[in-house]
Specification:
The complex is a heterodimer of chains A (670) and B (307). Chain A is α+β, with helices and mostly antiparallel strands and 670 residues long. Chain A is built from 20 helices and 24 strands. Chain A is globular and about 80 Å long. Chain B is an all-alpha fold. Chain B is 74% helix and 0% strand. Chain B is flat and about 85 Å long. The chains are: A alpha+beta (670), B mainly alpha (307). Chains A and B meet through helix 2, helix 11, helix 17 and strand 21 of A and helix 2, helix 4, helix 6, helix 11 and helix 12 of B.
Amino acid sequence: MEVTRVGSLSLEFLMSYRLWQQTIALVTLALVVSGALSCNVSSKNEEFFGKTVAPERNILRYVTGDEPESLDPVVSSGQPEARIYMALYDGLVEYHPKTLFPIPALAERWDINNDSSEFVFHLRHNGRWSNGDPIDSSDFIYSFRRALSPATASRNAYLGYYIKYAQEFNAGAVFVRDAKTNEFLLAKDFDPNSPPEPLSMKSVAGDGEFKPTQEEAKPDADSEFHRLMHSPLRLTLPGAEKKRNALLEKNAKLKAAVAGKEFVPVKAEDIGVEAVDKYTVRISLVQPAPFFSGLLAHQLFRLVPRKAVETYGDQWTQPNHIVTCGPFKVKTWKPYDKLVVERDPMYWDAGNVRLDEIQFFPSQDNPTSMNLYKVGEIDAVLNHTVPNAWLDVVRTKKDYMDGVEAGIDFLQINVTKPPMNDVRVRKAFNLAIDKVAWATWRKVVKPLTAFTPEGIFQGYPQPKGDQFDPERARQLLGEAGYPVTKNPDGSFSCPKFPVKEVEFTFNTQESNKAMAEWMQAQWKQNLGITVGLRNMEWKTFLAVRSALEYKGFSRGAWGADYMDPFTFLSLFYTGGESGTGWIDPKYVAMLDEANRMLDHEKRYELLAKAEKYMIDAQPVIPIDTSSINWVKKPYVKGMYPNAASLYPWKFVYIERDRSKWDYGTPSLSD
Amino acid sequence: MIRFIIKRLLVTIPTILVVISITWGLIKLAPGNFYSGEKRLPPTIEQNIRAKYGLDKPWYQQYGKMLWQIVGHLDFGTSLKYEGQSVNSIIARSLPVSAAVGLLAYLLALVVGITAGSIAALKQNSKWDYASMTLAMLGISLPNFVLGPILVLVFSLTLYWLPPSRWDGFFSRNIILPVVTLSAIYIAYIARLTRAGMLEVLRSDYIRTARAKGLSEKDVVIKHALRGGLMPVVSYTGPALAFLLTGTVVVEKIFALPGLGNYFIQASLNRDEPLIIGIVAFIAITLLLMNLLVDIAYAFLDPRVRY
């Protein structure tokens, strides 16, 4: 999930902190002169940051980030919208407010088969839309099919690719059928390396598939569709004729087998989502995915109203058409101004919703948001809003939220161009960065040597990457053919290194610039190499990075889509997607093997092994695990500073009794 | 006069088309696209998005479709970033905000600027002259991204008198700081222009005649001097108003106002093609119309100008 709002022109960008400080000094001077100082200047010893008065009504005013792209939950991939969707739409499961693990939402409970490849969700019977219509399993079937449809073109669709035939449906692929026998060609006959099939692809009668739970002693009703899901994976080919023919040209065996057969498009009805009965939804996956139930809290899988969507098309999210199913419903929406949602009496758990209203204000500018917070016009701001330069003051206040975050910062390396195609050079640049010193300077981050955030995934044996070791860095560079020599004044130089071939590319933003300059200084100091810096506008940067048009290093950051290390490790799962050019089938195979593990601990162990393997190849230089960094008024309770900054709003309330306020960051342990 | 106006209006149409075409070309040349994000999309999903928005068609088809929509239907299409919101509705919604702030700022600038400039000119080289010209110099040299935060710092964060940002309707206290911030530079320019214009006019023969006729100083200044002295201000007003009405990026950004300028900068950063083209075309039209109005105003103010 994208955590940073990088695409905006911010005040920080227009105005460096030094200028800001000079301005403050200037103004203070002006105030002294005019005598206004006697009036009211906030004292430095205040307990909280700015005005702190609990509001009369149960209304939360919150800056969630940039203007929401749409109120349609399948549209946006960002965190700001995710929080709005959480107020408006319910899914099968919801995030736990502290741990983010899935808790029951429209599904009361769920069963998982023995290898985590089939999930059965039992819906509550009192789910209702905001217009009063009842919610049943058909709503989920519709919503899932819509989310994964190529016509919807959701950017998040890849999250649903675990569902059987979902990727093929989304990609517009075709099955191959023998018209005479009505038999479909199977994938395993053409892929010699096909992995062992998960239980959801073995026949239903097979043993060991069903794991009895307390509520349920026997599997749910079988059906024809269920048996279809439990048959071996069918062969699929690209739907576009050109691409398909190109593929067939390369594979003679495939071409021969396909000749004379008919192509059947993969349809919405083919994906592994089934309404077993009115209140039971069964989801069959193409691979074991123990984290899948947690993934279902993601916005992609939240429920959308079929009638409204089909009646109004892309206008269904307009305030006069929209129908929702979450704890809140739309009251007014003035784009770029505010979105007001109010408690929905139709919501199944309306009795436990404690806020009457939430007002979401869009703002991409951190100082602007902080100003609103300080004067008491809003009650909380989104994560990463406190500018680095304000931290010294704001961190001492009791309304500052401090804690771990499921997000990392790293440098991507273009491994396709020399000299960075040499792993020794990549390692040298990694070893030459003192990440502990960096973390101290940045104040709210923790140094990172591996690729998953530290302290987030309980029980995950996170591997350790290389620590800061400039001596070894210089040695490695020497081995790679670029000897580092020590100058008489104690500095280093590396005359043979092709400095022109390496740059640090980043998108224009004050904090990125600070990072780039820091790294540049470290390399200069420890390797004697001065790497050039190159900044560019956000969208240009993205295009350059994904096309591997940059030389050397580029900035990277990622936040968890779900609470599993795989959300980070999968950034390198399919080749080229990471923007480094590092593709390794062995790494992919290692991840596959780990995900097939039935035993949770064993799976974590194998994932950690894969992570170690990736880190050793060094397509990235891990820099830090981010920390959350925001403020909320002490009277806002139940809004826990969890690792993904996602808040199930029904737990949030306004506390007027000062003795029950939060004095400091609320604890995340139960 | 009428013929002149019709001629000018007819020239506007091809100008706008050229502006639209150049903008469209520049957007196509800009790297990146509206759907790109931190994680690169799988090719299949990218393909779906391109197909949905017709980006997989050849460029001349895309260009033709866009142009036909605009010329044939006066429809700028739907925003790519803000799904389901038409460009026309976005402009209709954000224009009043920008226009209100811009007009108020310009009114304030006119009142304060002309007063200060006239006083400075009438009492040339007095302490009044120096004081107002020093302030004007400050106003010109202090950019609004510095002035805005200073005002916020003083009046919101320190004195807690006014809200620091956000839009809260036309009749709210929220509008005060943006209007003042925005007007500062215009006050300064108008004051200097008025002073220069007035000084020139005050020395001219017809003012001497007026004085010789025995007119009161009030009549001389208001009826004769000001009318001629304001000519530079009038020619400045056209483009200035066009820019003010169509939004000022920086001030709208500082105060988080839902105006046209804010949308414009966001649209460019988001590569939101229909929205960029819509706003650019709109600004171009406004600019051309304002210049036309200025030319018409000349005819009324200056008896020598005839079309």
